[in-house]
């Protein structure tokens, strides 16, 4: 289901004036390392959450892991979503990003500016004699001022423009409740998402609450017909775990199953949540043996059509491209590939429609990566 036809990145991270036209139901981004493939997914994720700077920080952390000890601070995560150039030099950072989409379902535009600010710690934040306040009152605290304007129009008749400006201080961010204010239903899966138990449990719980549990079981049964059910259980007083009811093995913890099932599980529990929206998957082939790719991609593209989800994936794998094209011969008009490459310091994008990719890859044995 195609919700947007084009994506224009005026400025975002290292991308400048990049435009993707004629987006399809299934969009595949290829290119060398550090060419900007993941950044394209991040730009879509930010645009889908254009009114939620707090969510932007989680989007930025996905490169290291939302639960990783290496995840940066909120301020730095936000800062690095904005363009960085050598001529900026030292001193407080000021930046601007611009993103927009157009299409039959959504037309959105986000213009946001950011600037670093500094101020004194407020006296009421803590007892100056407490150990936690040691050294706190003799230095500045750091913050960022974010100003953004979001313009939206859609087929649902909702139109309008909203602006916001506020300062986020480094010592106060943890006190802010995160209430995602999404413009488009969206989820962003990274290569290790299937290994993060809180992500698995949260995704499954939300999908179950939405009444989608049976559909998740049905989707997984397409991968492994022996799968009969899924349960979130707390056995022997231990912390809750996800169990798979398997015809051959009985009730078995999901973490003991192979990567294909675990990867399929996180995708299957995510797709119903983003019905009518976007699913972004970085390195779609991650953790999946090439022999399982055909079955997985046939199931994935069929599920996205079922739930009217527009799919955006990155890949380094020629086998993944083969699988998508081989398993969707009657839907080639719904597939597009985009090769991202840098020429003279600027990113260039070349589009391949599904039929062209089939001729180049499957018929002629060429490599568009």
Short overview:
It holds the Pfam family AAA_21. By secondary structure, the chain is of the alpha/beta class.
The strand count comes to: 15
% residues in beta strands = 25-35%
Order of helices and strands: EEEHHHEEEEEHHEEEHEHEHEEH
CATH architecture: 3-Layer(aba) Sandwich
- Rounded to an integer in angstroms, the radius of gyration calculated over CA atoms is 22 Å
The CATH topology name reads Rossmann fold
- Shape type: globular
The number of helical elements comes to 9
Low-confidence runs (pLDDT<50, min 5 residues)? 66-70
- Report the mean per-residue pLDDT as an integer: 82
Question: How far is it from the N-terminal to the C-terminal residue, by CA?
Answer: 25 Å
Q: Which structural class best describes the helix and strand composition?
A: alpha/beta
> Any idea of the CATH class?
Alpha Beta
Domain AAA+ ATPase: 23-342
Pfam family, one: AAA_21
Organism: Skermanella cutis
Protein name: AAA family ATPase
Q: Keywords for this structure?
A:
single chain, 369 residues, 27% helix, 31% strand, globular
Walkthrough of the structure:
- This is AAA family ATPase.
- It comes from Skermanella cutis.
- InterPro entries: AAA+_ATPase (IPR003593), ATPase_AAA_core (IPR003959), Bact_Antivir_Def_Nuclease (IPR051396), P-loop_NTPase (IPR027417).
- The protein has helices at 37-48, 53-61, 74-79, 197-209, 213-223, 259-270, 290-306, 318-326, 354-363; strands at residues 6-12, 15-20, 26-31, 94-102, 106-120, 140-154, 159-169, 186-189, 227-233, 241-246, 250-253, 278-281, 310-314, 335-343, 346-353.
- It is globular, with a radius of gyration of 22 Å.
- Strands 2-1-4-5-6-7 form a six-stranded antiparallel beta sheet, covered by helices on one side.
- 27% of the residues lie in helices and 31% in strands.
- It has 369 residues and is an alpha/beta fold.
- It starts with 5 loop residues before the first strand and ends in a 6-residue tail after the last helix.
